[in-house]
Amino acid sequence: MITFDQLMLPLLKALVNLGGSGSIDEIYEEVVELENFDDETLSVLHNPEKSNQTEIGYRLAWARTYLKKAGYLENSSRGVWALTEKAKRADKIDSREIVNYVRSLSRQVETDDASPEDPTTAVDDVPEETLAWRERLHHILIEEMTPDAFERLTQRLLRESGFVHVEVTGRTGDGGIDGRGIARINGLMSFHIAFQCKKYQGSVCASEIRDFRGATVGRADRGMFITTGSFTKSAIEEANRDGAAPIDLVDGDQLADKLKELALGVKTELVEKVTVDPEWFLSL
């Protein structure tokens, strides 16, 4: 398996190809394309019991963390990563030098002996994608929530996102369609969608996307496949295949982000930090 430091250069190349910035999903897909990872490699999960994150996704997260600490990347609160001026000026990078530099920031001894496969040995914080709340949410969705409740959650999610007439069908023999809804654009245009929501630990494959698309023909303008798991490379390609009705894909990470954004069962608390400036008082 490729190590996180070996993914630094492909990651930077991916951002260049994307025009200098990109979302986590865009970066992931571009790196997969550049490195030509197969479905078997992409289906390996980092920690199946706690998260749906793939091993490649996990190592890319650490690559982003190190490149940011070294000044090559910056990211916004909306999850968009971009090349810095330092990255744009650099003709080439030495990934090992970056690893040693970032680890030196944490005052680690014998950084050269640390394994690049375990970046956590020398960095205090963790990538945002691996925060504990995501692991807790993943466990609830997979282990504690019933399939019916997950369908109702999907219904609420779509309604909160602006869809109307959202209904859960959940009928057996309906070709994998769990519900339908209408998406409105600026109050002027609308299109019908059919969605499938799948509580899943692993990766959804291309055949499942093809089967779902077949079920939507004549029933909806497009389909949406929502899963707690992830999608294989071939599944993503099938969803966007030329000449076929598009299928929008929402994986576990995107689902978590959307639930957090809409505050559906995920609350964000801002803690006020108060400091006293003694110099201000003594200057009076």
Structural account:
This protein has 284 residues and is an alpha/beta fold. The chain has two domains: 5-125, Arc Repressor Mutant, subunit A, CATH 1.10.10; 136-261, 3-Layer(aba) Sandwich (Trna Endonuclease, Chain: A, domain 1), CATH 3.40.1350. The protein has helices at 8-17, 24-35, 39-42, 55-69, 85-89, 95-105, 132-144, 147-160, 206-216, 233-239, 252-261, 278-282, and strands at residues 21-23, 73-75, 80-83, 163-168, 179-185, 189-198, 203-204, 222-227, 230-231, 247-250. It has a five-stranded mixed beta sheet, with helices on both faces. Strand 5 (179-185) and strand 6 (189-198) form a beta hairpin. Helix 9 (206-216) runs parallel beside helix 10. The longest helix is centred in the N-terminal third of the chain and has 15 residues, at 55-69. It is globular.
Summarize the structure.
The protein is built from 12 helices and 10 strands. The chain is an alpha/beta fold and 284 residues long.
Number of contiguous helices: 12
- Provide the helix percentage: 40-55%
Structural class: alpha/beta
Shape annotation: globular
Number of domains: 2
Would you give the CATH topology of the largest domain? Trna Endonuclease, Chain: A, domain 1
What's the CATH class label of the largest domain? Alpha Beta
Proper CATH architecture of the largest domain: 3-Layer(aba) Sandwich
Strand order in the sheet with the most strands:
4-5-6-8-10
Rg for CA atoms: 22 Å
- What string gives the helices and strands in order? HEHHHEEHHHHEEEEHEEHEHH
Q: Summarize the main sheet.
A: 5 strands, mixed
Task: Compute the number of strand runs.
Answer: 10
Mean of the pLDDT scores? 86
Distance between the termini: 62 Å
Strand content: 15-25%
